[in-house]
Each structure stands twice: as structure tokens, then as C-alpha cells.
Amino acid sequence: MDLTPAIFLDRDGVINANRSDYVKSWAEFEFLPGALAAIRALSTLNWPIIVVTNQSAVGRGIIPPTVVEDIHRRMLAAIRRAGGRITEVRYCPHHPDEGCGCRKPRPGMLRAAAQRWGLDLQRSVLVGDAMSDIMAAHAVGATPILVLTGRGPEQLTALRNADIDHFHLVPDLPAAVEWLLGHPLLAARSSKTNITASSAIATASIAASSVNTSAGIPSGKPLG
Ligand SMILES: [Mg+2]
Ligand SMILES: [Zn+2]
User: Among this protein's residues, is 163 annotated catalytic?
Assistant: First the structure.
């Protein structure tokens, strides 16, 4: 079987504003600036785009699963209206104490998605704002990108304190997407990808990030 790479996106702090008291309703769901346009641009790659999000508010009894799923339905509808697509949304509803296999940093959601969609995790990318995102990507050999929206700044400190330095660092999701669309290695590896659609963006961002594109994964250094 021909495995495809995928783009995994964390939700809170990447697509929408993080809230320390959890996103408990659609009214509290606020798209980050440029996120919808970024997902639309990302959608020009023919790779599956999968949202993987820890929602322990469910396991903590703060919100029922139906509310999380309603938020996701509305989020997907808004993304579609903006011209983007998301292949699937997966969330971990468990309390951290439950020790489930799906709560990031564990890679259960990534592995389950790989099973379902036939993904090559080692050629996949995960964009997140937390150390747990970076570690989940590392657990399956995927390429992690840390954004500095949401919890990114504090989590960057945590990552550095933990001596974890194999991840790309960008300001936000639009910058992550720009980098991805222009990355010669990733773009070339997607055999079925129509890169002409995004070639204008790609050309611009190859120039912007050329310093980092040849050496594989740089050590947590800011990109262009
Ligand atoms: Mg997050
Ligand atoms: Zn779980």
C-alpha cells in the first residue's frame, strides 16, 4: 500500500485561541488571526489534514463530549466556508490521571489516524504549541513544528529546560504553512501533490527559510 504523509494540527493555541479555563462552548472558540487562510493554503497539498487535540475538560467533567463534538462541527463548517478542508478531528477526552494512550504526549491519536488513513508517520508533520505536541511527534518519528501562539512561549522555555531541541520554531500557523508549502523535501516527497497551485507561496517561502531547508530538522531555531 502506498502510504501518504499527513499534516497533524493541534487545536487550542494553533487554530484557535487557547484558554486556560478550556474552550467550553462555540462562543469561546476564537480562530487565531490568519488561521483559516492558512488551513486553506495547506489544503492545496493533497495530504490528509488531521486535528489531534487533548480535551481533558471532558474527563474532568467540565464539558460533555457532545459539546466538544458540536464545537468541532462548527469549526469544520467555518473552515469549509473559508475554502479549507480537514480530513478528520480526533480528540482525547480523558483525564490526565487515566493514563490513556491517546493523550499527547502519547502518540495514540497519531497511530490511530495512521491506521485509518494509511499514513506514513515518519514523513508527516505535527504543528503544536506545547511540549506534549513535540513529544508526540517525536514518538512516531514525525517532524514537529512549535508555534509561538497559545502556550508556545512558555512551552518553548519548558522544552529548552528539558533539553528537547529537535523541532522547527515558527511564529504561528500561517508561518508554519508557508514553511511547509515551500519545503523542498516535504513538497518533493508528496508524489501526488499538485504543487503548482501553491508555487507562488512556495517560491516566496523557500527564499524566506532557505537557511533551514537543507539540513533536515534544525535545533529549535527560528525559521526565516
Ligand atoms: Mg495546544
Ligand atoms: Zn485519551
Answer: no
**Domains of the chain: total:** 1
CATH number where 40 lies: 3.40.50.1000
Is the four-CA dihedral 146, 147, 151, 154 of positive or negative sign? positive
Amino acid at 104: K
Q: Work out the number of other CB atoms within 10 angstroms of the CB of residue 192.
A: 9
pLDDT of residue 216: 40
Query: Does residue 58 belong to any structural domain of this protein?
Result: yes
12 is catalytic: yes
* Percent of the chain residues topping a pLDDT of 70: 81
- Taking only the tens place, the pLDDT of each residue in 74-133 is 999 999 999 999 999 999 999 999 999 999 999 999 999 999 999 999 999 999 999 999
CA 53 to ligand 2 center in whole angstroms: 10
* Active-site hit among 2, 12, 21, 129: 12
In a domain, 2, yes or no: no
- Residue 113 is part of which domain span? 7-222
Task: Spell out the residues 6+ positions from residue 157 whose beta carbon is closer than 8 angstroms to its own.
Answer: none
Residue 142 belongs to some domain of the structure: yes
